[in-house]
Amino acid sequence: MIKDRLDKGILMAINDSLFNMWRAVIAIVHADTKVQPHEINFILQNIKGLALSDEQRDILFADMRTPYDAEAAFCRISSPAHKESFFHLARAIAWSDGDLDDREDALIARIRALPSDKNDVSMMEEALSHFREIYVEGASEKKDVSLFSMVQSLISRRSA
Predict the structure, then answer these.
(1) InterPro entries of this UniProt entry (predicted)?
(2) Which residue among 27, 28, 112, 133 is the one 20 to 30 A from 72 at the CA level?
(3) Which runs of consecutive H residues, i.e. helices, occur in the chain?
């Protein structure tokens, strides 16, 4: 799809909802005050295929260097699918070093507590439940599970 738009010379930047989802995910990386190379690599791998404007790319790269307000970014996510993806990605990033730091957990909890409608709450709980099933209760015991494959599994469960 992006390739088709590139071939036609039409490349529009991603919408604000998806952009802010990534800003919120990147903010989670900073929550434990230890930004790990694998966390940055995961972000870079996932945003490289996005149709980012130069301004959006610059902002995301700046967010990787300097923490942005995750709660403010989350409040700007308008798509329920992007909100759900945020929770999948946030938990995966938080657990990627094998330890859910109290600060990461607290930040995700504050975001979960932000005002939202019943559908958002239900979706958030489902996303976190899938995370627990795949990572905490199952896949975390496998040595060959990568962060990327775990997130792909979470997202594919949702679309199945």
Answers:
(1) TerB-like
(2) 133
(3) 2-7, 16-30, 37-47, 54-65, 70-75, 80-95, 102-112, 118-131, 147-159
Q: Which of 127, 95, 132, 135 is nearest to 111 (CA)?
A: 127
- Compute the distance between CA of residue 120 and CA of residue 112 in angstroms, rounded to an integer: 9
Six-digit token pair at 1?
A: 């799809």
**Contact, 70 vs 142, CB < 8 A?**
no
Given a contact cutoff of 8 angstroms between Cβ atoms, the answer to whether 50 and 112 are in contact is: no
Distance CA 104, CA 3 (A): 36
Query: Under 8 Å CB-to-CB from 151, ≥6 apart: which residues?
Result: 88, 89, 92
Give the CATH fold of the 11-159 domain. Answer: TerB-like (1.10.3680)
